Amino acid sequence: MRTGDDALWSGAYKIPWNDPDFSERMLAEHLSQDHDLASRRCVWIDRQVAWIHRNLLREEPSDILDLGCGPGLYSHRLATLGHRCRGIDFGPASIEYARKCSPCQSRCQFVPDDIRHAPFGGPFDLAMILFGEMNVFSEAEILAILCKCHACLAPKCGRLIVEIQTAEAVECLGRGGSSEQELESGLFSARPHRCRTEHRWLPGQQAAVQTFTIAETASMETRVYRNTTRAWPADDLTALLKTAGFSGMAQHDDWPCNTDCLALWSARAA
């Protein structure tokens, strides 16, 4: 495995995922049925939940840990199938929505916390990190998260699933060109503004860096945000999971997905 530069994942310019105003705008993106940028559209979530229920949980009531749960779109559906779910996310608006809209509140618990630092509880039959969430952490951070996952899973029968952005997709992201948009409102501001996006690919760190420069139309105030995405080629991913204590790593080609930019892997708590 390559050692990344943790500075790429920290600092003053990191996207403020847990800022209340930003979180409200992010929630709108999660719930939109016009795109799959923040969360998948419901038709695909329904198919994936059915796959998890049938293929991993064997339609037996199970305890599930949903890391980076967002507004609870997976946990809500899994709870209606009889499973008990604990979701953790540090977007305050998403957690509030997840709690308010849970169809089975007795079987769902949503915790506002950073999965890097939060206690996970357990034991769980399944832990899941979906929709490329794993790629946004540094190598040291995701290893620590995976070690906590291993510790909270039921011995022998506990399983982990991670849906990663493929290494090819991350490199393609990093090699993208620059673009500029004039927006009336958007993820980074509720007011009219200009958003310039730039991309870099850092082969030594296997990381794509996106830089967003936001210029408010009225005040001309400028803010800069950065997002870093780590690529995990298959060999690096399996080595990482093994280091965290997992075994039996496998990629699932039958995972229902509307893009080839994401891939699902599973592993067992050895």
How would you portray this structure in words?
- The strands form two sheets. A seven-stranded mixed beta sheet has the order 3-2-1-4-5-11-10, sandwiched between helices. A four-stranded antiparallel beta sheet has the order 6-7-8-9.
- It contains seven helices and eleven strands.
- α1 (20-31) crosses α4 (92-100) and α2 (42-56) crosses α3.
- The protein is globular.
- By secondary structure, it is α/β, with parallel strands linked by helices.
- It has two domains: 17-166 and 232-269, Vaccinia Virus protein VP39 (Rossmann fold, 3-Layer(aba) Sandwich), CATH 3.40.50; 170-229.
- 37% of the residues are buried.
Q: What would you call the structural class?
A: alpha/beta
Helix proportion: 25-40%
Count of DSSP H/I helices: 7
Mean pLDDT: 94
Beta content: 25-35%
CATH superfamily of the largest domain: Vaccinia Virus protein VP39
Query: What is the CATH fold-level name of the largest domain?
Result: Rossmann fold
User: What does the largest sheet look like?
Assistant: 7 strands, mixed
Give the overall shape: globular
Give the strand order, joined by hyphens, for the main sheet.
3-2-1-4-5-11-10
CATH architectural grouping of the largest domain: 3-Layer(aba) Sandwich
Strand tally is: 11
Rg over CA atoms, rounded to whole Å, is 18 Å
Unreliable spans are none
Q: What is the class of the largest domain in the CATH system?
A: Alpha Beta
In total, how many domains does the architecture comprise?
Answer: 2
- List the secondary-structure elements in sequence, H or E: HHEHEHEEHEHEEEEHEE
Distance between the termini: 21 Å
